Every structure is written in C-alpha cells, then in structure tokens.
C-alpha cells in the first residue's frame, strides 16, 4: 500500500471498497502503529481515510499484538513493554471481553460472554462520524493537529481551531429540520435525547456499496468523504 501499511485483524469489504481494523502505520505515526479503522475505496489502495484510531500519544511498534483477557479486556502490547487499553469516557476499560466484531457500517464492537456490548467505536469518535453514527452531548470531535468540534448548549454544531494558544469558533450551523432538500451527511442536535442525529440516508444495505463520512480536518474544516468501488469524492460541508 502506497505511503501506508497495515496489519489487518478484521475486515468487511466488497471488491475494492471496505473497512479494515488493525494496526495502522504511516508517516504521521513516525514508523509506529496505531490501532485503527480505515475506510478504503475509490478503486485503489491509496484512497483511504482513518475513521477511528487509538490514542496517538501511545504509538506501538511493528511487533505489537492485541490481547483479549478476562481481567484486562482488550489491550495492545509491544516489545518495548508499552501497552494500550480501550477507554470509555476517559477511563480505562478493564472488563472481560469474549470477542471483537467489525460491522458493515465500520463500527468495532467488543462483546462479553452473554453477547452484551461492552464497548464500540461508534460511541467513542475521534475526528470522524460515519453514516448512522451519533455524537453524544458533551462529546467532541478532536483533530490531533489542534482543532476540535462539539455541541453548544443550544444544539448548534460548532467547530473550533486553536491559534496562538486560544480557541476560536469560526464555523457554526443549525440545519433547518423542515427542509425538503436534506441529503448526504447532515447532522443536527436531537435536543430531547442529547445526541447528534444523521439526517441523510443511512439505510443498511445487504452489500457494502459505498462509504460516507464527515471528518474534522487539521484546519478545522468539516469534510465529507464518499468512497465507492470505482471513485472517491471529497467535499467541504
């Protein structure tokens, strides 16, 4: 793969289109690896975007491996005795994990012995929202190059970027819920339930036909990514 490499643990794909979950390495990681979900499409291996990743402050080496255990849950371990564990609301998630699944929507799900969901990447976004994914009130999208997005108390979706050590709001939107022209990835606040809902089409299909996401870029702009088997499309939201 040109410019990036990956040790794949789980995958969901249809021809050249798919989601891959595993250890991901590129120039950004300085020859190290992150646990990540990568969306690939557009007819080639170079067209890809990371839609979820582990903490970028903990870069693992090439010999890292994932470990499922009854006391530590899901952890990564490498030769340097570094280790990384899943987080839930900024706390380590040390629970007994029976298995891991990657869904057709790109959601990584950890489940227990009774099949109960213990953790899922859709509830712990980094800088990207996939179709059908919710951003809960009080949670943020964070780009590691100094920008973040979240919800104001009035339900507006706002994007911030840090410049000269201060946070500046420069993008804010509140879609008209009565509009008949809503399409694609448009998000609005559900004030009753306290999360962002997707207003575009998010019906699950039996075969993976496209991947669509909204990603907070390093310049603080929200971009819409759409991958199909033969093409890709990137537009500003």
From TrEMBL:
<protein>
    <submittedName>
        <fullName>Bulb-type lectin domain containing protein</fullName>
    </submittedName>
</protein>
<dbReference type="InterPro" id="IPR001480">
    <property type="entry name" value="Bulb-type_lectin_dom"/>
</dbReference>
<dbReference type="InterPro" id="IPR036426">
    <property type="entry name" value="Bulb-type_lectin_dom_sf"/>
</dbReference>
<feature type="domain" description="Bulb-type lectin">
    <location>
        <begin position="1"/>
        <end position="123"/>
    </location>
</feature>
<keyword id="KW-0430">Lectin</keyword>
<keyword id="KW-1015">Disulfide bond</keyword>
<dbReference type="InterPro" id="IPR051343">
    <property type="entry name" value="G-type_lectin_kinases/EP1-like"/>
</dbReference>
<dbReference type="GO" id="GO:0030246">
    <property type="term" value="F:carbohydrate binding"/>
</dbReference>
<dbReference type="Pfam" id="PF01453">
    <property type="entry name" value="B_lectin"/>
</dbReference>
<keyword id="KW-0325">Glycoprotein</keyword>
<keyword id="KW-0732">Signal</keyword>
